[in-house]
Amino acid sequence: MIAVDLHQASLRFGELPVLAEISLQVRAGERVAVIGPSGAGKTSLLRLLATELRADSPGALRLWQQDPWLLSSRQRQRLRSRIGMIWQAPPLPDSQRVITAVLAGRLGQWSLPKALLSLLRPRDPAGARAELARLSLADKLYQPCGALSGGQRQRVGIARVLYQDPDLMLADEPVSALDPVLAEASILTLQQQAAARGSTLITNLHAVDLALRHFPRIIGLRQGRILFDCAAEAVTSAMLAELYGNESPGSLAEQMPPC
Ligand SMILES: Nc1ncnc2c1ncn2[C@@H]1O[C@H](COP(=O)(O)OP(=O)(O)OP(=O)(O)O)[C@@H](O)[C@H]1O
Any stretches that span the bilayer, and where are they (predicted)? Predict the structure, then answer.
């Protein structure tokens, strides 16, 4: 089944074109890394898939064969509860305890009374601890988020989405604040958990080596256009040089061999 289907999606911020006629399909359970230079549009692409931003052209996005923008707001909310977003800098209030931050991953799936009760008295400490343990953070369960380092906050953000257990995980630079060893271990955990749960995973990464080692499919994005979309083994150093180089995307696309 196709989980994500983007058809000629373009996006502008005011006059600024950010994404230009992006088309891609991602099967349910597939794991994909998006790489590309700063400002290429990687975050904007994820925000589009998360239905946080809306493409310029109607009908450009289908999630699980549904156009989110043709659903009622209630139905769209239900659809969004199937999506988990891992931010580069997770929005965790300093005074919130780590356990509450992780359990918040399921707020969208719980009834209002259940969610409010959980804020007062966390209802599943064992579940939160188990996800934190995968990221070597079990000992931080009752700490306030304000006492965490940037890298620990990133891992709490990952644990929160693992606790949510969504069908689609979208991760924007999820390990940018981690040292190389922790970054490798955390990406491995994320990738393995997505595979074990059958979740679709789309991750933006600046660390190309991590992307190539851990993701079967790589999308190269430059100036809002897909330059290549192929298996990790098919990515060559010449393709990477072009992706991060100074040539215009038009001339690159003409030279790029089909993947
Ligand atoms: N909310 C916004 N309003 C206006 N312009 C924006 C907004 N968000 C992003 N942009 C612009 O859109 C372009 C793409 O930004 P985006 O954050 O998607 O790129 P990126 O590939 O994720 O970059 P990075 O790797 O540096 O995070 C940039 O030129 C950026 O300045």
Answer: none
Whether 16 lines ligand 1, by a CB cut-off of 6 Å, is yes
Domain extent listing, the chain:
1-82+166-259, 86-165
C-alpha of residue 38 to centroid of ligand 1, in Å: 8
What letter represents residue 58's amino acid? P
For the domain covering 1-82+166-259, report its CATH number. Answer: 3.40.50.300
Cβ of 40 closer than 6 Å to ligand 1, yes or no, is yes
Q: What ipTM was assigned to the predicted interfaces of this complex? A: 0.96
Least Cα distance to 54 among 2, 14, 10, 5 occurs for 10
Verify whether ligand 1 is closer than 6 Å to residue 13 (CB atom). yes
The model carries a pTM of 0.91
Tell me how far the alpha carbon of residue 10 lies from the centroid of ligand 1, in angstroms.
Answer: 14
Verify whether ligand 1 is closer than 6 Å to residue 41 (CB atom). Answer: yes
Give the span between the Cα atoms of 232 and 243, in whole angstroms.
14
Tokens of 233: 């083994």
> What pLDDT is attached to residue 109?
74
> For ligand 1, is residue 136 a contact (CB within 6 Å)?
no
pLDDT along the chain (259 residues), means of 10: 96 94 96 97 97 93 96 94 93 92 84 72 88 96 94 96 97 94 95 96 96 97 97 96 71 41
